[in-house]
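User: Here's a chain of 271 residues. Predict its fold as tokens.
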Amino acid sequence: MNASRLFGTALQYAFLGLAAFLSIFPFFWMLISASNTSIDIIGGKTSFGDAFATNVTNFFTQVDVPLVFWNSTKVAVLATVLTIVVSSLAGYGFEMFKSKARERVYSLVLLTLMIPFGALMIPLFMMMAKTGLINTHIAIMLPTIASAFIIFYFRQSTKAFPTELRDAAKVDGLKEWQIFFYIYMPVMRSTYAAAFVIVFMTNWNNYLWPLIVLQSNETKTITLVVSSLASAYYPDYGVVMIGTILATLPTLFVFFVMQRQFVQGMLGSVK
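Assistant: Prediction complete.
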């Protein structure tokens, strides 16, 4: 029994170690590449070089870093806040208010998850063009506000919300919007934290729709800038890796700061 248990434990640690290595290796390779020249990267060099400072200087010379990061931060934060507010209201409403058509409408919302974004690009572009929103950050945020997945996530989490609190608040004379903002949101803060991490990372890494809508350099986000550097006629891969590292840091920061709340929120949604 002890031998089989030790073998099972060793196998688990071996599997976890391999998974950790496969997860960390791309970041490690990215750091190595950022310190080498393009010739070294193409040649497959796997050790640190001495071109890190040069690559950083070239990146800041070629890219208006403050403007690009401001564009990305503005789009990601505003879209995330709007998405969470709208989707949490929808999830709360679908769970708390009962009606004959509730499940039918909810099923239609979930069915939209099956529609690929490629089928929506042309209609969305035509809508934005007719409203004069092309080449604006509003055009990026509007299609993401009502997220079917986040609505589903909040409804599943709301199932664990104690209805006794809502009933007691009604007895005390609170209106529905007061119950939502003063009772529901504080109680479900771990769910909001998990949703914030998911939606923020999605908006920060958004590439295809901004590529279609944004047409000037003054409005482009970090993902578009890094992509344009990589698709140049003679790409400097060291500079591209510097941009990739800088583009990755905000999402890593948000995740590590909110990782405890993220885990609590995900576990709460399963319950």
